[in-house]
Structures are given as C-alpha cells and as structure tokens.
Amino acid sequence: MGGHRREQDLAADRERGAVTAELAVALPAVVLVLVAVLVIAAAGIVQLRVTDAARAGARAAAAGETDARAAEIAQRTAGDAVSVSVHRADPWVTVTVAAPVAGGWFGGRGLAASATSTAWLESAVVVGGTQ
C-alpha cells in the first residue's frame, strides 16, 4: 500500500506542475485581451464625448455664437486635449472635434476619435414667408 500512495503523490505533483505551466502560458493572453477590451471601451467613451462636443458646438454656432465661442463650447464639452475647427459655408456651419484615445495602441500614438456635426444657421431660417 505504501508504494501505491507514493505513485498517487507523484501523479498529483506532476498535475500541479502541468496546471502551473498552462497558467503561465495562458495568463499573458488573458491580460492582453483585458487590455484590448479596456482600450476599446476608452475609445468608445472618447468617441461619445467628441460627438457630443461637435453637436454642441454646431448648435451654438447655428444659434448665432461666434466661431471662437462655438469652439470654446465644444472644447468645454469634450475636454482639454481636443482640437476643434469651425467652418462656415452659408447657410451651414460645420464643427469638427478630434481627440486622442488614452492608451491607444497600448500607449503609442495611433488611436484617435473624431466627429463632425453640421447645422443650418438659424439666421437662414425663413419665418412667416420672409427672411
């Protein structure tokens, strides 16, 4: 009986070693997938922020705000690390907002979010048949 017990102990030791080796191989892959999911989530959040900012800037410009004020509104909505451009072509105004994604491509420069929103200037709206 003593020999049988020793064989079971050796088999259990080998299994523990195999599990450790499998974990050592699988853990980096799991961490990589987790980081990728977090970067994609961050990109989605930044995309929503720049979309909201472009919309807010275009609405402000369409309501009669200056280009500088519309850009300020868009920047305040999206955050500090964004670039904002305002372009007018009567009767339209277009606001474009772009921002880098934190951790994009795991810290390198490569992932950015941008959005463009166009609105019709309220001054161009015909009221009661006259302009």
From TrEMBL:
TadE-like domain ranges (all copies): 17-59
Keyword Transmembrane: yes
Keyword rRNA-binding: no
InterPro entries xrefs: Rv3655c/TadE, TadE-like_dom
Keywords: Membrane, Transmembrane, Transmembrane helix
Chain ranges passing through the membrane: 23-46
Listed NCBIfam families: TadE_Rv3655c (NF041390)
Name of the protein in its database record: TadE-like protein
